[in-house]
Amino acid sequence: MAKATNDMTKMMQDMMASFPVDGSAMQDAFKTSAALGEKLSAVALEAAEKSTELSAKWTKDTITKAGDIAKVKDEPTDYSKAMTDFASAQAEMAAENMAAFAEIAKKVQMETVDLMLAAGKDISEEATSAVKKATTEVTSAAKKAAAGK
């Protein structure tokens, strides 16, 4: 009984040794994933930088326009005109800046889609290559096992 168990264990060890696991496929998958993460991070960081610059410029322009309101005017109607001009300038700046934010978002979306499509293609190619390699190795191992009988 013990001899049969030992033979089964030896047979399982021999069988597993005949089908080696390729660790490089896992390493390649990890590298591909890490590269995708790096590229996506670069897209996000660039968008954050541009958004911050846009927000800072908008704030600076608003402060400059607010300074015009605070100046002493000669006539009471000049205060009304200054407020109207400020409101008009704010509406115009808001439209321009919202369009600029939309362009940033659009660029992020396009770059993300491009990266995901490229990553999908790379992953598909890697998977196909790994399956072909595994099929070749399994076929070779099966032929060796059949020849060894």
Could you please describe the fold and organization of this structure?
The chain has 149 residues and is an all-alpha fold. Helices cover 93% and strands 0% of the residues. The chain has helices at residues 2-18, 23-70, 76-148. It is rod-shaped.
Number of helices: 3
Strand content: under 5%
- The helix content is over 70%
Separation of the first and last Cα atoms: 24 Å
Main beta sheet: strand number and arrangement? none
Shape, principal axes of CA atoms:
rod-shaped
Q: What's the alpha carbon Rg, rounded to whole Å?
A: 33 Å
Mean pLDDT: 84
Order of helices and strands: HHH
Count of distinct strands: 0
- Helix/strand class: mainly alpha
The low-pLDDT segments are none
Reconstruct the topology from this structure.
Elements: H1 2-18, H2 23-70, H3 76-148
Helix pairs in contact: 2-3
Descriptors:
single chain, 149 residues, mainly alpha, 3 helices, 93% helix
Short description:
The protein has 149 residues and is mainly α. It has helices at 2-18, 23-70, 76-148.
